[in-house]
Design brief:
The structure is a single chain. The protein is α/β, with parallel strands linked by helices. It contains 10 helices and 13 strands. The strands form 2 sheets. It has a 7-stranded mixed beta sheet with strand order 9-8-7-10-11-13-12, with helices on both faces. A 6-stranded antiparallel beta sheet has the order 1-2-3-4-5-6, covered by helices on one side. The model has no long low-confidence stretch (mean pLDDT 94). Bound molecules: S-adenosylmethionine. InterPro entries: PABS (IPR030374), PABS_CS (IPR030373), SAM-dependent_MTases_sf (IPR029063), Spermi_synthase (IPR001045), Spermidine_synt_N (IPR035246), Spermidine_synt_N_sf (IPR037163). This is PABS domain-containing protein.
């Protein structure tokens, strides 16, 4: 079978980056290329892997695989959602695959969830090739806005009192590309202004403690200049670099910490709803190894 793509050699997709340790790469075996294009914003590749289901790759970086996406989507969503006493309005920046929305909608208290995705190609391809995530895009509580998340915040959310949110989840791609602004202080100021008094944010940090703890520290320092509470947690996931990804969490109200769940489901309900998240892992995900805690906290 023809597997012709610059990132696929001998039937294996290879993710490489200067951010990795020297001599490190991530490979997934490819069964079939489903789609490849240069969209208006980024290189987009969707392939069927032999063992991880369908895989979405943007600018050479794996975004989701059907096999392990639940780990990231559950943690980036349920950590802030359960830390908040009553999240009704939720904003997702990025996240065009729909996976985070799917998790947000598991909370009955949510009245409205807005998703702001820059790239229509991601939405269309997710609808076609990632149905277990993208079905959430069509839910009656969901509004999908096709726009740059930074501009959306600047022009809409931060200006109108009625457009404030309880939770804002930045489910973006890495800083090299259209998501660059999401790692700068001005973005966190916009987030702060777009939140209600008890509002919380969580951001895909694109880093992890093994590979680039200095960048993680820089991001945490930026957040701390804006928010009174900034904490870092992580989730384990095989197809993100070095098997884990850090999530930066901030709270507007100094009395509310994102690391402390304010609500929880029964054990049985947790098992029905989630595969990764549970009440105990919520707090545990903020406990870092010695060297990382010394550096970050
Ligand atoms: N979970 C993934 C990860 O950590 O690799 C992220 C998945 S999600 C598909 C990332 C999305 O953010 C992409 O669809 C991308 O188009 C979107 N995105 C990047 N920059 C954006 C921007 N400025 N405004 C809105 N969405 C953006």
């Amino acid at each position: 079978m023809e597997l012709s793509h610059p990132l696929i050699k001998d039937g294996w997709f290879r993710e490489e980056s200067e951010e990795f340790f020297p001599g490190q790469a991530m490979r997934l075996r490819v069964e079939k290329i489903l789609h490849a294009e240069r969209s208006k914003f980024q290189d987009v590749l969707v392939f069927k892997s032999t063992d991880f289901g369908n895989v979405l790759v943007l600018d050479g970086i794996i975004q989701v695989t059907e096999r392990d996406e639940f780990a990231y989507q559950e943690m980036i969503t349920h950590v802030p959602m359960f830390a908040h006493p009553s999240p009704k309005k939720v904003l997702v920046i990025g996240g065009g695959d729909g996976g985070v929305l799917r998790e947000v909608l598991k909370h009955d208290c949510v009245e409205k969830a807005t998703l702001v995705e820059i790239d229509e190609s991601v939405i269309n391809l997710s609808r076609k090739y990632l149905p277990k995530m993208s079905h959430a895009l069509d839910h009656e509580k969901v509004q999908v806005v096709l726009a740059d998340g930074f501009e959306f915040l600047k022009n809409t959310a931060a200006k109108h009192e009625s457009e404030k949110y309880d939770i804002i989840i930045t489910d973006s791609s890495d800083p090299e590309g259209p998501a660059e602004a999401f790692f700068q202080k001005q973005y966190f100021e916009l987030l702060y202004n777009a939140l209600n008094a008890n509002g919380m944010v969580i951001s895909m940090a694109s880093e992890n403690i093994w590979l680039n703890i200095d960048k993680l520290k820089t991001l945490k320092d930026i957040c701390s200049q804006v928010f009174s509470v900034t904490e870092c947690c992580y989730c384990t996931i095989p197809t993100y670099t070095s098997g884990q990804i850090a999530l930066m969490c901030c709270s507007k109200n100094p009395q509310l910490k994102v690391s402390v769940p304010h609500r929880h489901e029964s054990r049985d309900r947790e098992s029905e709803l989630f595969r990764y998240y549970n009440n105990a892992i919520h707090g545990a995900s903020f406990v870092l190894p010695r060297w990382a805690a010394d550096k970050l906290n």
